[in-house]
Amino acid sequence: MNIDAALIEIERACGSGSVRTDEATRVLYSADASEAVCPPPDAVVFAHSPKDVARTFAVAQARGVPVTPRSGGTGKVGGSVAAQGGIVLALEGMHELDVCPQDWAAVCGPGVVLGDLHRAAEAENCLYPPDPGSLATCQVGGTVATNAAGPSAVKYGATAGYVLGLQVVWPDGSIHRLGGRTQKRVSGYDLVSLMVGSEGTLGVITEATLRLMPKPESIATLRCYWGAANSSKGTSSSKGASNKRASIGAWIQRARLHAPDLRCAELFDATTLSIASHHAGLSIPRGAEAMVLFEVDGDEAAVAHQAPRLAEAALEHGALDVVVEEQAAKRARLWDARRSISDALRKQARHKLSEDVVVPLSRLDDLIAACRELSEEYGIVIPAYGHAGDGNLHVNFLWDDEGQRPAVNQAIRALFERTVEMGGAVSGEHGIGLLKAPFLSVEQPEPLIELQRNIKRVFDPRGILNPGKIFGGASCPGC
Ligand SMILES: Cc1cc2nc3c(=O)[nH]c(=O)nc-3n(C[C@H](O)[C@H](O)[C@H](O)COP(=O)(O)OP(=O)(O)OC[C@H]3O[C@@H](n4cnc5c(N)ncnc54)[C@H](O)[C@@H]3O)c2cc1C
Predict the structure, then answer these.
(1) Is the pLDDT confidence value at 473 over 80?
(2) Do 229 and 333 reside in the same domain of the chain?
(3) Pocket of ligand 1 contains residue 32 by CB under 6 Å
(4) I want to staple 29 with a disulfide (CB 3.0 to 4.6 A). Which of 69, 88, 337, 405 is the partner?
């Protein structure tokens, strides 16, 4: 690769100031929100139009320079880290946003911050449902590329359900439109779906047309506390205060029967409950070992009917206490506390690794039990929390002593193996990126992985786009 000549050509094509090679910029763009640590890229190219992306690719192809797309840089698996050097292609400058309520759609540049899209949609009485915890900083391009989801996926699903159309630049520099502003279409292969979740390995998204929903009239938020008997693998025949006592996973699985408009069910285990409660200034009822944060949304009458019915059913099935959060300010503090857990856990030990496994809902109790068993077997603190309503938990590994690292590695592999045995996947929402690449084969057979490599070769025969991601092959000294 002839990087110096390439950078001169890119700056000439994209304009003065589009290429930065100073140390501070390269360091800033050398990491995302994961534990991936790679050397800084050779340069950061700031694109302001699809043509800038196309021009960058034209030079990168000719000079054999790797290109790694990046939107908000909040990824959790090192996807936007330049694992093989070259260029980080920053798309944050492409933040045009047009909300079109008449089409129930919003047309967004890849650099639109998701929280800005939420606010713009709400101003038109619309809702863009995907709500990852990072929504204050993640950007549309990254959320489409990772098929991001959030707490409300229980009712509304992940990003994939909202992408109507894309403008994409392939690695050969050609610009294409896939799908469009219609609510549905069946014309040829569904390349929009192929792009969603492709983690910046097939092409660069330069515009996304996203489906909007009606903004719900009302939201009810419930804090539902559970004691040790329920947070362990209890059964409906367990003895206790209630003869209908249910284990927490079984209860989460059934909650929708009581509240069909359930939009989220977020689990906090004992450790994360303590952290979040401290952050939100809430006291924990005596004996509580876990909490589920439920939300129901919809029209006012439906919410007014379903929320109390959910609370009653929870108490009947063994919940210690249920608190309905009525004030908007308290609700906001609670969600702020939920979003701060990842950072707070980082302060609890010298080292932290966070996994993102997902299992079928019927196996949620087994996943919770597996975390506890792995913690005992390997002597590592393993708090787990997250989108339990989707069977998706963020399982964290915390340790202080360098000597524990081999045990951590074994425990992580064991977690993935057990998840897959349960019919689950190694990632529920963060993707594979750089950090999970060594574990894709735990879930998928080699011929299926090879088929996906071949698909990548069709789009990117020279392998210049985000090399080393999903399928491995990159060495990252710090990983
Ligand atoms: C506090 C916190 C909470 C989080 N909570 C959630 C959550 O609830 N749910 C969830 O799903 N994730 C969550 N995440 C992870 C992360 O925010 C998501 O993966 C998000 O979608 C990444 O968006 P981004 O703009 O930051 O992408 P980046 O980190 O910039 O990139 C992510 C991937 O997309 C590729 N990419 C970026 N832009 C483009 C583009 N325009 N075209 C093609 N490829 C591109 C990159 O190469 C990379 O592989 C959380 C992260 C943090 C730090």
Answers:
(1) no
(2) yes
(3) yes
(4) 88
Distance 240 CA to ligand 1 centre (A): 44
Q: What is the pLDDT of residues 350-379, one digit of tens each?
A: 999 999 999 999 999 999 999 999 999 999
Q: Which of 30, 67, 80, 199 to mutate to test the pocket of ligand 1 (most atoms within 8 A of CB)?
A: 80
State both tokens at 407.
């045990």
Q: How many angstroms does the Cα of residue 290 sit away from the middle of ligand 1?
A: 28
Domain membership flag for residue 479: no
- What is the CB neighbour count within 10 angstroms for residue 292? 24
What is the end-to-end Cα distance of the chain in Å, rounded? 24
| pLDDT tens string 36-59 | 989 999 999 999 999 999 999 999
Alpha carbon 453 to chain centroid distance? 23
The position carrying tokens 């210690």 is 320
Label residue 238 by pLDDT band (50, 70, 90).
very low
Q: Which of 320, 341, 362 is the last residue of a domain?
A: 341
The dihedral through the CA atoms of 386, 392, 398, 402 has a sign that is negative
Considering the domain architecture, whether residues 72 and 86 belong to the same structural domain is answered as yes
The distance of Cα 139 from the centroid of its chain, to the nearest Å, equals 12
- Among all chains, which residue has been given the structure tokens 């045990």? 407
Answer yes or no: is the C-beta of 466 below 6 A from any ligand 1 atom.
yes
Q: Tell whether 460 is covered by a domain.
A: no
> Which of 64, 92, 120 marks a domain boundary?
92
User: What CATH number corresponds to the domain at position 335?
Assistant: 3.30.70.2190
Same domain assignment for residues 198 and 124: yes
CATH of the domain at 84: 3.30.43.10
The boundaries of the domain holding residue 10 are: 3-92
The neighbouring-strand residues paired with 475 are: none
Ligand 1 centroid from CA 113, angstroms: 11
Does 287 lie in the same domain as 191? no
* In a shared domain, residues 114 and 183: yes
Question: φ, ψ for residue 175 (rounded to 5)?
Answer: -110, 130
With a CB cutoff of 8 Å and minimum separation 6, the contacts of 358 are 390, 391, 392, 393, 419, 424, 425, 427, 428, 429
Distance of CA 358 to the CA centre of its chain: 12
State how far the Cα of 181 lies from the Cα of 105, in Å rounded to an integer. Answer: 7
Nearest atom (ligand 1) to Cα of 159:
11
Q: What is the pTM of this model?
A: 0.95
- 78 Cβ below 6 A of ligand 1: no
Query: How many domains would you assign to the chain?
Result: 4
**How far is residue 273's CA from residue 294's CA, in Å, rounded to a whole number?**
14
> How far is 3 from 73, CA to CA, in rounded Å?
23
Same domain, 325 and 386: no
pLDDT digits (tens, 9 = 90+) for 97-108: 999 999 999 999
